[in-house]
Amino acid sequence: MSFSLLSLSLLFALLLSITLAVTLGSVEIRPGTVWKIALTHVPFVGERIEADWSRAQHTIIWEIRFPRVLLAAVVGAGLSVVGVTIQSLVRNSLADPYILGVSSGASVGATLVILFGAFSMYGQYALSAGAFLGSLVSILLIFSLSRLGGQNSTVRLLMAGIAISAVLSAITSLLIFAAPNEHGIRSVLFWMSGSLAGAKWEYLTIPTLVVVACLGVLLVQYRALNAMLMGEESASTLGVNTVRFRKLLLVITALLTGVIVAISGAIGFVGLMMPHIVRVIVGSDHRRVLPVSALLGAIFLIWADALARLSFAPEELPIGIITALCGGPFFIWLMLRSSYSFGGDGR
């Protein structure tokens, strides 16, 4: 299948997934009604559409399900893009924001907000601010630690990330242990497993802009990303300023992880699985890997979230449980594929 046909197929699958996911729930709604209601909010077009749905259906679709499904698409795309970025950065097929400790930093910030009311001056954005600042501090610590002694290599960066991740995870556990109330502990544990239940239209703008902007920057730099897969020395001989480029990748990783974790909690395995699947399908050229990973990640998380909210309705599973149940068997399958290697099959 050509790359253009694959991209069009994934775009169609994404649109179909959004439509079907919005219709799923305790109240039955036809697919046509979903887009009629959406179009009523488009200037000039909405006036020509005759309403054949109830006010309750309008509220359920427009205020609850639509923002949640779209947020799942944005978060899935962002996690996949950050997975591609960080695996190229450390040249390790098992790397993701959780291993480097970036999401652990976000968890510390969010835990301080939920349990102790930190950053209360930011009001409803306190959780986002706490998670983002936590991820930013962690990435700065990792980068500073990796440069100690005047050396700055990918191996030291990965080791620094693992060390910082362990320390920050311990701090989060300590904060939970010292929590003043049981309700706060339950909230933190649910948030740490990931959830899109709090999705609102006003929460979509910033994550969408950040994901699109970071994806655009990475696509412009796809040749440097391809060169980094061959090693820093090889990349340098090809004209890549590896020190400056690593800083750019670190900033993109911190920004994407902070924004996404702040809005959805810690959702693992998406950034780990999608790049591998995409490299098997389209090869290792980042001009193809990045957009296909974003589309596939969006589709995957839409259905993972639908399964999380419907499988035990009216109770809701943390979405991190669904992604972990998919991620474990996937890596066993990947391990058994003797032909697979990091960077795909060399195409």
Automatic annotation (TrEMBL):
<keyword id="KW-1003">Cell membrane</keyword>
<dbReference type="Pfam" id="PF01032">
    <property type="entry name" value="FecCD"/>
</dbReference>
<feature type="transmembrane region" description="Helical">
    <location>
        <begin position="317"/>
        <end position="336"/>
    </location>
</feature>
<keyword id="KW-1133">Transmembrane helix</keyword>
<protein>
    <submittedName>
        <fullName>Iron ABC transporter permease</fullName>
    </submittedName>
</protein>
<keyword id="KW-0813">Transport</keyword>
<feature type="transmembrane region" description="Helical">
    <location>
        <begin position="69"/>
        <end position="86"/>
    </location>
</feature>
<dbReference type="InterPro" id="IPR000522">
    <property type="entry name" value="ABC_transptr_permease_BtuC"/>
</dbReference>
<feature type="transmembrane region" description="Helical">
    <location>
        <begin position="125"/>
        <end position="145"/>
    </location>
</feature>
<keyword id="KW-0812">Transmembrane</keyword>
<feature type="transmembrane region" description="Helical">
    <location>
        <begin position="98"/>
        <end position="119"/>
    </location>
</feature>
<dbReference type="InterPro" id="IPR037294">
    <property type="entry name" value="ABC_BtuC-like"/>
</dbReference>
<feature type="transmembrane region" description="Helical">
    <location>
        <begin position="157"/>
        <end position="181"/>
    </location>
</feature>
<comment type="similarity">
    <text>Belongs to the binding-protein-dependent transport system permease family. FecCD subfamily.</text>
</comment>
<keyword id="KW-0472">Membrane</keyword>
<feature type="transmembrane region" description="Helical">
    <location>
        <begin position="201"/>
        <end position="220"/>
    </location>
</feature>
<feature type="transmembrane region" description="Helical">
    <location>
        <begin position="248"/>
        <end position="270"/>
    </location>
</feature>
<feature type="transmembrane region" description="Helical">
    <location>
        <begin position="290"/>
        <end position="310"/>
    </location>
</feature>
